[in-house]
Design goal:
364 residues, mainly alpha, 0% strand, globular
Length: 364
Amino acid sequence: MVGTTRDNSLHLPGTKSSKQRRVYLDLINSVAIMWVVLLHVRFISPDNPSSSAWWVENILSGFGIAAVPLFFMATGINLLDFTRRESIGTFYRKRFTKILIPMILWAQVYLFVHMWTGSTPFPGVHEILRTLVAPSSEAATFWYLEVLVGVYLVLPIFSYAIRGVQAEQATTAHTRFLWLMAALGLFLPILTQGIHLLRPNIFPEFIAPITGYLGFCLLGYALANTEFSRAWRIVIYLLGVLGLAVYIFGGAYLIAHRPDLKSVAHGYLALPAILWASAVLVFCKYSRIGQASATVQNILKRLAALTFGIYLVHLLIIQILETMNFSLTKVQWEVPYALFVWALSAVIVWMLRLIPPIRRWILP
């Protein structure tokens, strides 16, 4: 999604071709952004499992919880081998230009729109400065972009490590390295989540992006560059379904009986989300989307190009619709309403990106 580039890397052992990789990543980004919108269109309190409507939302959220991990995985797939294509200086200039400038500008848009809709007074210097240094304080969804900045800061270290292993031209060494990255990708989120849950006073910021969320980048790269037999794919799919079930049913139990342990099942760094997102990625990788018609691939490419813009604006659109009393309250309308918000966001972003300066600086 955010800040990614087209994959021009060399073909590695056990990987799909560059064209096939581009197509299935377009599919992942297109589906994941729809799930993100669905997660933010909630009608029922997430901590009150007392009705059938809550269960419907809980099931929908179970599917959607894979969205953010998938975005990080796609970032790892696209960028972890960037040192073979460009310098670190070029990498930082491209990534931070595409992330920081739009994030800061759109945070200001959120600030003044909230004032216009009457939810906050006219912002003063303090509020403007706060939004400049902490965009997520005004636009809650921007936490992901702030995390992404932290991931980008350390990504060159792992990119050089990958480059060194590939330079050895040893298939065994490369395979072992991929398994190591997969292990780190699985256990870094679990480790950080466990420390935060069991000992919150020990390294309270250890759950920061440089540890937990970076794991998704490593895991995504490993899954994308490892060839799985049919038997292994079935195992991954079964583990994914198990993760989805634990999120839905185990999470409901913990919310009702042990809310202090809710994060064990719910949350992006929880094991159920990791397993479910991994299964979705592998499913997309081995799907027939790479052999789809040129028309289908072109549609996916165009939709994926709108992903970052939709992420930036969709919450603002939801909030504006709420002030207009347009939002719906019956859970059976949740999916159609989420699709409407996604489509409206996509149209707005597409129209704005027709203006070259906006496409370059505001909605890249």
